[in-house]
Write a structure and sequence with these properties.
heterotrimer, A: about 625 residues, alpha+beta, five-stranded parallel β-sheet, five-stranded antiparallel β-sheet, 19 strands, about 15% strand, B: about 220 residues, mainly alpha, 9 helices, about 0% strand, binds flavin-adenine dinucleotide, binds protoporphyrin IX containing FE, binds iron/sulfur cluster, binds FE3-S4 cluster
């Protein structure tokens, strides 16, 4: 597999502008002759589809939900970063760049991260112009808050619904183009295959989720913006439909998959309450601005939280990380919670939880201030748990939240497969081994609004794209393959439901490839996953037909892909013999339990190549160089 | 102008027409209830009022046509919107629990229909006299008293006035909403104004047939 | 707790449907959808096709979930989507009737799944601000009064779930449409298209076959995001304003009030 990062060199501040100057342009009259497929209508997909259509390209957009507005981006609560320095607190493009590279534990590409910081300011402008109702100060200017371990206030937000508002902004731009006939929107369509002709991505095969019809769509370029794969773990904060199918199918068609083991565990989620649990709910990280994490000092302390005096509480984050305290980055806060629970001091059912206590904040600021800041989050907590967090501390526990890994892309956001571009959470690019809070929204929109509109033109303008329609054999073959999978899933008629397999897989991954990993566990997982997969293909029960709306069938297809993909995650985790960011290998830690990176051997992105059904995938590497941010140990003490 | 026609085509436009015509009706009924209450003073005061109205000549006819047009528009819009609503939910729920819709709001259509029947009857009764047992042109007060002395008629009047009260209790509040007259500072007062008006107007009218039934009016 | 469910089952868009009864058990910590998941697991075990229902985020924000539960859109708890509704709201022995949203503009696709694309078309008709990528001035170039921004945000909180239509005795989409019109009318960026927007959106809303509004207020009571009736009043006001302005010959592109 060949892949060149196309990362510019020279002074980092001008890399993107110099690179842009070198990009070829498509003339306005020619743009409408190019068909572009955008799979996904989240922040990345909707912004890309709308922007590309505005430029004049012929765009078709796909999502599996009933409306593009429901993409999982809608669930983001906390906010979006931008280096506006409106607060005059010393923020700058450079500082955001620096924080992101460091926060990612030096496993991202400097050029990309700098560009991300650079265009972050344009994103806010764009969103404001679209009518995103960001929080404002009384004077009418935009408000900011500090978020997710940053020491400047650079996070823009719209109450606790930032993702929703940003997505609605992009969705409205997209709907405008749909209304004008410049984007053809296909809702309730799931991409099942990528079509490659002459080594280039030239189309997709989708299943119409209402009629079951397999449809081929041809184009000059394909953009995947299909989100993350956190649902491999079954229980996660992701929406139920989030999947790896599109990315995984692309991988099998030749696109490299980078760092699949980099998954983020979010520290503040509502703990699991029983076996029937279908998902975990995130409580915004912003709660840690005023809430304090603690567990009882004594093992097996069964008293209700209110009866435990301060002296008998362990405010473990404040104790371990005096300078960041409760605002320590996600990976660190998550692991600290796991540590105290493993120590037998966890609270709530099963001892898998820690308190997030607002008592001191309420005493200091008054209940009203807390209500104003977090009212809707407190309500949500109450709705789910039936407990009143103004009176009893919240119980939280870490949960899978985000996946830094994804399809490998070059500086132009093109995968190793020419013509296939990957945006948003689906690519591996900008967050390295750990994503900082409020930067996924930033990245999705940067990719969609301000990068792909330039870079895709370069690919198209370079030519060499033969005329082609869906009668081409490659489409027939892809359709047949997709049909065949559906037929197979329906014909097994075993004894176990899709969900039961998914649960089992998720549990296995959480135990062996979750917050903490080790060689023995990963090797075990690599034996058990294929067994489980074989059992799945022998014993899964998918009822009904493929000719209508069949939600079990949809799930089965996604779980089938997770079953294979999980193996890739474990393999990647096994071979990355270091700890960095969200990837914590217990063999590689410092004396006081912090992640121990190995920059000599692992300052690279691992890029996995699919080489056939019965052969192990091949690991390639993209060496990462750090010219501007000095490789250093992250410390939040 | 085109857009004015086009706006009639919209559901909102029809509602605005209903609100405006309803308001015209409301204004008429305010003056009507006040003049009718003269019957409790001296019946001939009513005759004088009637004579005064007729002395207006063309102006009266203009007002009559205005009222007629208002009722027609109101009814046409009501019928069209009702049919539209029925078409908007071809298959209904087996169970549908209303949470807040008031009795008044739910009876707008049937109540309105009752009012329509009442208006036709009422004009043939007290203006033209066809349904009146002993009609004397110009003797408004006397016609009223003898007309309502027929018990079933008085009962019908009373019922219609209850319907009118309900129609206004929701209708006046509804007018504010339809014309977009809302402001957080006085949104509560909208309901108060609405119910007060309904009680005053319908109550005023109601007093007359009730008085007839209980023999106060003779 | 033991429960009896009465669920609408319908094999496809043009197929006949009927209510089926299922006995099930649940505990108070389960969400309503988790309770349905369990029913489905048992149906699958018995070889019967599971009940289809829309859902995705399961945290009350995507607007996918729906369901008329005991005659109430999104069930008995105020300001709560079905996915956030927990079984502690029910009692042992309860019978729960579960039906799809019912409206001509929301045809049933299967069981409890309906097609809400009419909402997308209302937005496509005008529910946006034309601001092509790259054309924006600095975010702070135009100040927005905090109060106005808050009102805009209140309206923008709509999740497009369709409960307002489902609960409305007229199957009217006024609350949804009003929320978008109100959101954009309260921002300076939304002024240029203000008149055109409301006209186009109302035309599309009517074309989709929703009923008219008779100010029942059921929509507000059912709305999981507390979108208030003020949004309907504003929608009416915007349309009247736009019409009068146009009728008076003023350019349609300028603001209304
Ligand atoms: C609860 C929660 C809170 C978060 N909070 C924040 C925050 O405060 N700040 C922040 O920066 N980030 C946050 N994140 C992360 C962030 O929301 C996501 O990373 C980001 O929104 C992903 O956007 P996306 O466009 O890449 O993908 P998505 O929004 O997931 O969109 C994926 C799209 O692809 C489509 N799709 C997927 N598969 C297929 C297929 N096979 N066929 C067809 N279509 C398909 C889907 O329909 C959807 O339209 C949060 C995440 C979660 C889970
Ligand atoms: C108890 C209730 C009412 C009483 C006693 C009453 C009495 C009368 C009388 C006596 C007249 C004749 C006036 C005249 O000829 O000068 C009249 C006329 C009329 N009334 Fe009423 N009325 C009542 C309620 C209503 C209501 C509720 C409406 C409308 C909804 C209404 C509409 C009219 C109209 C349209 C006329 C004809 C006016 C004209 O064209 O001259 N009345 N009413
Ligand atoms: C002269 C008598 C009447 C008066 C004064 C009157 C007044 C009103 C008013 C003020 C409204 C509220 C309009 C709005 O929502 O903005 C209304 C609504 C309505 N009226 Fe009447 N009306 C009268 C007769 C009728 C008749 C005869 C009918 C039916 C045949 C009718 C049917 C309705 C209906 C269906 C509504 C809609 C309910 C609503 O919009 O909330 N009305 N009326
Ligand atoms: S207005 Fe409320 S009920 Fe209607 S779609 Fe929006 S959120 Fe749902
Ligand atoms: S319930 Fe229906 S009638 Fe109007 S106020 Fe709400 S849309
Ligand atoms: S499933 Fe997303 S709102 Fe209920």
């Amino acid at each position: 597999m060949e892949f060149i990062a196309k990362s510019p060199d020279g002074p980092i501040e001008t890399r993107w502008s110099r690179h842009q100057m070198g990009l070829k342009l498509v003339s306005p009259a020619n743009k409408r002759k190019f068909d572009i497929i955008v799979v996904g209508s989240g922040l990345a997909g909707a912004s890309a589809a709308a922007s590309l259509a505005e430029l004049g390209y012929n765009v078709s957009c796909f999502c599996f939900q009933d409306s593009p507005r429901r993409a999982h981006s809608i669930a983001a609560q906390g906010g979006i970063n931008a280096a506006k320095n409106y607060q005059n607190d010393g923020d700058s493009v450079w500082r955001l760049f620096y924080d992101t590279v460091k926060g990612g534990d030096f496993r991202s590409r400097e050029s990309n991260v700098y560009r991300l910081s650079e265009v972050s300011v344009n994103i806010i402008d764009q969103c404001v112009a679209q009518g995103v109702p960001f929080a404002r100060e009384y004077g009418g200017v935009l408000a900011n808050r500090s978020f997710g371990g940053a020491q400047v206030s650079r996070t823009f937000y719209a109450r606790g619904q930032t993702g929703q508002q940003l997505l609605i902004g992009a969705y409205q731009a997209l709907e405008r183009m749909i209304g004008l006939g410049r984007v053809r929107m296909h809702t309730r369509h799931e991409m099942l295959e990528l079509v490659v002709v002459d080594g280039r991505a030239r189309g997709i095969v989708t299943r119409d989720l209402i009629t079951g019809a397999m449809e081929s769509h041809a184009a000059h370029a394909v953009v995947l913006a299909t989100g993350g794969y956190g649902n491999a773990f079954y229980l996660s904060t992701n929406a139920k439909g989030c999947n790896v199918t599109a990315a995984f199918r692309a991988w099998k068609k030749g696109a490299g998959f980078a760092n699949p083991c980099f998954t983020q565990i979010h520290p503040t989620c509502i703990p699991q309450s029983g076996d029937y649990q279908s998902k975990l709910t995130l409580m915004s990280e912003s709660l840690r601005n005023d809430g304090r994490c603690w567990v009882p000092l004594a093992h097996g302390d069964q008293r209700v939280p209110g009866e435990i005096p301060d002296a008998e509480r362990d405010y473990y984050l404040e104790r371990k990380y005096p300078s960041f305290g409760n605002l320590a980055p996600r990976d660190i806060a998550s692991r600290a919670a796991k540590e105290v629970c493993d120590d037998g001091r966890g609270v709530g059912p099963g001892g898998r939880g820690v308190y997030l206590d607002f008592r001191s904040a309420i005493a200091r600021l008054g209940e009203n201030v807390i209500r104003e800041r977090y009212g809707n989050l407190f309500e949500m907590y109450e709705r789910i748990t039936g407990e009143n967090p103004y009176l009893v501390p919240m119980r939280i526990y870490p949960a899978v939240h985000y996946t830094m890994g994804g399809l490998w892309v070059d500086y132009n956001l093109m995968s190793t497969l020419p013509g296939l571009h990957v945006l948003g959470e689906a690519n591996f690019s900008d967050h390295g081994a750990n994503r900082l809070g409020a930067s996924a929204l930033m990245q999705g929109l940067a990719d969609g609004y301000f990068v792909i509109p330039y870079t895709i033109g370069d690919y198209l303008a370079r030519g060499g794209l033969t005329p082609l329609d869906t009668t081409h054999d490659a489409f027939r073959a892809a359709e047949t393959a997709a049909h065949e999978r559906v037929r197979q899933l329906l014909s097994i008629n075993g004894t176990r439901s899709v969900d039961s397999f998914h649960r089992e897989l998720g549990h296995l991954l959480w135990e062996k490839c979750g917050m903490e990993r080790d060689r023995a566990g990963l090797e075990e997982a690599l034996i058990r996953i294929p067994e489980l997969r074989r059992e799945f293909w022998r014993d899964v029960r998918v009822l009904g037909s493929g000719e209508n709306l069949n939600q079990s069938l949809e799930k089965a297809g996604r779980v089938a892909d997770f079953m294979e993909f999980a193996e890739l995650m474990c393999r990647d985790a096994l071979l990355r013999e270091e700890s960095c960011g969200g990837h914590f290998r217990s063999e590689y830690q410092t004396a006081d339990g912090e992640a121990l990176r190995n920059d000599e051997a692992f300052a690279h992105a691992a890029v996995w190549e699919y080489v056939g059904e019965d052969r192990p995938p091949v690991r390639h590497t993209e060496q990462l160089t750090f010219e501007f941010v000095e490789l250093a140990t992250r410390s939040y003490k | 102008m085109n857009r004015l026609v086009a706006v009639w085509q919209t559901t909102i436009g029809k509602k605005v027409v209903m609100a405006l015509t309803g308001l015209i009706g409301l204004l008429f009924l305010i003056s009507h209830v006040i003049s009718n209450l003269l019957v409790f003073t001296e019946p001939h005061h009513l005759d004088e009022w009637g004579a005064f109205l007729r002395s207006l000549g063309p102006a009266l006819w203009l007002a009559r046509f205005g009222l007629l047009a208002a009722v027609l528009l109101h009814v046409v819009a009501a019928v069209q919107l009702t049919r539209r609503s029925q078409a908007a939910r071809p298959a209904d729920y087996t169970r549908h629990e209303r949470q807040v819709a008031t009795y008044a709001a739910r009876t707008m259509r049937w109540g309105g229909l009752l009012l329509l029947v009442f208006i036709i009857f009422h004009i043939l009764h007290l203006t033209w006299g066809q349904f009146h047992p002993d009609f004397h042109e110009g003797e408004v007060g006397r016609n009223l008293i003898t007309g309502l002395a027929v018990k079933p008629v008085a009962i019908f009047y009373a019922l219609a006035m209850v319907a009118l009260g309900l129609h206004f209790a929701h209708g006046v509040w509804s007018v504010f909403q339809t014309l977009g007259l809302n402001h957080p500072a006085w949104n509560r007062s909208r309901m108060v104004i609405s119910i007060t008006l309904a009680v005053l107007i319908a109550g005023g009218f109601l007093a007359i047939p009730l008085a007839a039934l209980f023999g106060v009016l003779r | 707790m033991k429960l009896t469910l009465k669920v609408w089952r319908q094999a496809g868009p043009d197929q006949p449907g009927r209510i089926e009864e299922y006995a099930t058990e649940a505990n108070g910590h389960m969400s309503f959808l988790e309770m349905l998941d369990e029913v489905n697991e048992r149906l699958i075990a018995k070889g019967a096709e599971p009940i289809a229902f829309d859902h995705d985020c399961r945290e009350g924000i995507c607007g996918s979930c729906s369901l008329m539960i005991n005659g109430q859109a999104h069930g008995p708890r105020a300001a709560t989507t079905t996915c956030q509704l927990h079984m502690r709201e029910f009692r042992d022995g309860d019978t729960i009737v579960v039906e799809p949203w019912r409206a001509r503009a929301f045809p049933v696709l299967r069981d409890l799944v309906v097609d809400r694309s009419a909402f997308d078309r209302i937005i496509a008709a005008g529910g946006y601000i034309t601001a092509p990528t790259g054309s924006a001035p600095d975010g702070n170039a135009i100040p927005v009064a905090k109060d106005e921004a808050e009102i805009a945000m209140d309206s923008a909180a709509c999740i497009g779930c369709g409960a307002c239509v489902a609960a409305c005795p007229n199957a009217s989409a006024m609350l949804f449409t009003g929320a978008k019109v109100t959101h954009l009318a309260h921002l300076p960026q939304g002024q240029a298209e203000r008149a055109r927007r409301v006209q186009a959106m109302v035309d599309q809303m009517d074309a989709e076959g929703f009923g008219g509004c008779t100010n029942f207020g059921e929509c507000e009571a059912a709305c999981p995001k507390k979108i208030s009736l003020a949004n309907i009043a504003q929608l009416n006001r915007e349309l009247i304003g736009a019409t009068l302005r146009e009728a008076s010959g003023a350019p349609r592109t300028s603001g209304v009030m």
